[in-house]
Design brief:
This protein is an all-alpha fold. It is built from 15 helices and four strands. The strands form two sheets. A two-stranded antiparallel ribbon has the order 1-4. Strands 2-3 form a two-stranded antiparallel sheet.
Length: 404
């Protein structure tokens, strides 16, 4: 699974009775003609809005102007109540109780559209829906009414912050999203101290999950999918009792630092999967560590990604390229020279063409030059006309003086 919400997607599949989620961009298209404005050519049933949102957000982050068609496709996916489903093939048909809307797609769309600007009506409706979907413990599940999980709660926190809300003040029954995250953080007096669990087990036990921990760190810091390097400090202090979200973030970052220290990357945690690098979760961990200020380990793991992640991204598609761009941005690296790969170009090749801001500036300058050039021509013509009129008067006057 190559997207950050892998555990959440699996939970959603269980809810809806689906077989296997097709979140990666490697599965065949269900139709010979997917919308031309959609990023990626794989089945969008489970991740269409998610990958579109990440792609647009990544382009905006690196200074590329997303295609208007791609943005319009995303806004057009919204249901009347403000929520987003992963993919609506027929947007002329209203959403109903069978529509597979979820918090993750909705929150990702909010983050992308808020960054792009000019979509307050869309993001406002989406935020209203997210607030209504908040659980009594202050968190969110993948679907409205589902048990709160770290990943979903964190991506919603990022959406709230992007939309100008104060997440700590968005409460249900007196509980904020940060209250929910603190309950999902493992204590310091046991194994995997400081990590976050995805959800409590059947008996309420918390099991460390690296993917959830990366999300929990950024969420506890009030950050979204895109963030720069933080200044909270390194993780040398280790785990301390978390009485507030900032300490929970520091504890989670310490856990990630230990998990990444030996190999530089995280390993796949999916049941039945072989022990192999988890590129997507490693990229998310880099973002989380950078946001916390643990820049040393973030830089080491970024270097590992620069050396090893190109094939994974090419196989996985737009969301993977976006994750790597976010990791590069968080650490101050150049996404256009990511281990010899131009992530921006590769991302753009998976969807509608985007113009660089520098190109737009050049176009505007050209327009100004053309405008100035046009003005110069008309100014010259005007001068000639005036001169001609003057010469005419001069000749006329001279002719009159020469008459007998």
């Amino acid at each position: 699974m190559n997207i950050r919400r892998s555990a959440a997607v699996l939970a959603a599949v269980a809810v809806f009775g689906a077989a296997t989620p097709a979140a990666a961009d490697t599965s065949p298209s269900p139709s010979p003609s997917l919308p031309s404005a959609l990023f990626g050519d794989g089945d969008p049933q489970y991740d269409g809005v998610w990958r579109q949102s990440l792609a647009l957000l990544a382009q905006h982050t690196v200074g590329a102007e997303p295609s208007k068609a791609a943005v319009d496709w995303l806004t057009g996916q919204q249901c009347a109540d403000g929520s987003f489903a992963p993919y609506r093939a027929d947007t002329g048909k209203p959403c109903d109780e069978k529509s597979m809307v979820d918090t993750n797609q909705t929150a990702a769309a909010v983050q992308a559209l808020a960054a792009l600007g000019g979509h307050d009506h869309v993001t406002g409706k989406a935020v209203d829906w997210l607030k209504k979907a908040q659980n009594a413990d202050g968190g969110w599940g993948y679907t409205a009414g589902g048990a709160s999980d770290t990943n979903s709660t964190s991506v919603v926190i990022g959406a709230l912050a992007a939309a100008g809300e104060k997440p700590a003040e968005v409460k249900k029954d007196g509980k904020s999203p940060y209250d929910a995250l603190l309950k999902l953080a493992l204590p310091c007096d046991g194994d995997d101290a400081g990590a976050f669990a995805f959800q409590p087990g059947k008996k309420g036990e918390l099991v460390a999950n690296a993917d959830a921990t990366a999300a929990g760190v950024t969420g506890s810091l009030g950050k979204g999918l895109v963030t720069g390097a933080g200044s909270s400090g390194d993780t040398a202090a280790g785990c301390e009792k978390a009485g507030d979200p900032e300490q929970a973030a520091a504890n989670g970052a310490a856990y990630l630092t230990d998990a990444l220290a030996e190999k530089g990357h995280l390993t796949s945690a999916l049941a039945g999967a072989e022990d192999q690098p988890d590129y997507g979760n490693t990229a998310d961990a880099v973002v989380a560590l950078a946001a916390q200020g643990a820049t040393d380990q973030a830089a080491k793991s970024l270097a590992w990604l620069q050396k090893n992640a190109a094939d994974w991204a090419a196989q996985s598609g737009p969301a993977a390229y976006a994750q790597l761009i976010f990791a590069a941005h968080a650490t101050g690296a150049d996404p256009r020279d990511f281990g010899g790969t131009d992530l921006v170009k590769q991302l753009g090749a998976t969807g509608p063409a985007a113009a660089e801001k520098s190109d737009r500036a050049a176009q505007e300058e050209k327009k100004d030059e053309e405008s100035d050039s046009g003005l110069g021509v008309w100014w010259f013509v005007g001068v000639c006309l005036v001169a001609g009129i003057g010469i005419g008067f001069l000749i006329s006057g001279r002719a009159k003086r020469q008459q007998p």
